[in-house]
Amino acid sequence: MNIPGLDYNTRRKRLVMPEYGREVQDMVNHCLTIADRAERQRCANTIVRIMERMTPHARETNEYKQKLWNHVAIMSGFALDIDYPFDVSAAGHLGERPKPLPYPMRRIPVRHYGNMVFEMFDILKKMPEGQERTELTRLVANQMKRDLVQWGHGSSDDAKVADDLAYYTGGKVTLNLDNFRFERTETRFVDRKRKRK
Q1: Count of beta carbons in the 10 Å neighbourhood of residue 138
Q2: Alpha carbon distance 121, 107 (integer Å)
Q3: How far apart are CA 169 and CA 125, in angstroms?
């Protein structure tokens, strides 16, 4: 079947930005064919207004308008000769993938606390006594309690958290369980496991 417009999208040319649809891409392609520069500028302004209407929840900010003009430049293959209201020279880098982040390869004694908690242990060891260290100790202890409850590794009672905190900080930070109050921890993870059994 060779009826124009009735072929499958899979046989058509791949869209540069599928989120705007084939109609907007066709408008940009038409804009490229307009010889008169002023008419071409009006056409590009109209295309951007149509793109704005496609996302009515977007705010009227310069960042959003910059994004739309970047997208017009990308869809035209940077061949559209108009006066852009924004600098679109960096738009070509929008599709590049970021470099992968290095994964921390530090070995930690117990995995259920995670690397970040052990980084906090190192910070606590070096901190002088005071309100800041007390607050950080409270945050770390509560995170340890949540980790124990979530991962279900042995006992998750308060004494276990206090013992681990003292052990992994080399005895420099201790919890007085008579005065210290843990935040309420969610036990829904544990409850789900029990229900499955």
Answers
A1: 15
A2: 14
A3: 6
Query: Given phi > 0 = left and psi -120 to 50 = alpha, else beta, which region is 15?
Result: beta
What SS3 string covers the chain?
CCCCCCCCHHHCCCCCCHHHHHHHHHHHHHHHHCCCHHHHHHHHHHHHHHHHHHCCCCCCCHHHHHHHHHHHHHHCCCCCCCCCCCCCHHHHHCCCCCCCCCCCCCCCCCCCCHHHHHHHHHHHHHCCCCHHHHHHHHHHHHHHHHHHHHHCCCCCCHHHHHHHHHHHCCCCCCCCCCCCCCCCCCCHHHHHHHHHC
Residue 86 tokens, joined = 């924004």
Amino acid at 105: M
Q: Give the span between the Cα atoms of 57 and 52, in whole angstroms.
A: 9
Q: What's this model's pTM, rounded to 2 decimal places? A: 0.50
List the chain pLDDT tens, one digit each, 197 residues: 567 667 777 777 888 888 899 999 999 999 999 999 999 999 999 999 999 888 777 666 768 888 899 999 999 999 999 999 988 888 877 767 888 888 777 788 888 888 889 999 999 999 999 999 999 999 999 999 988 888 875 566 888 889 999 999 998 988 888 888 888 766 554 445 455 55
Give the C-alpha separation, 103 to 10, whole Å: 39
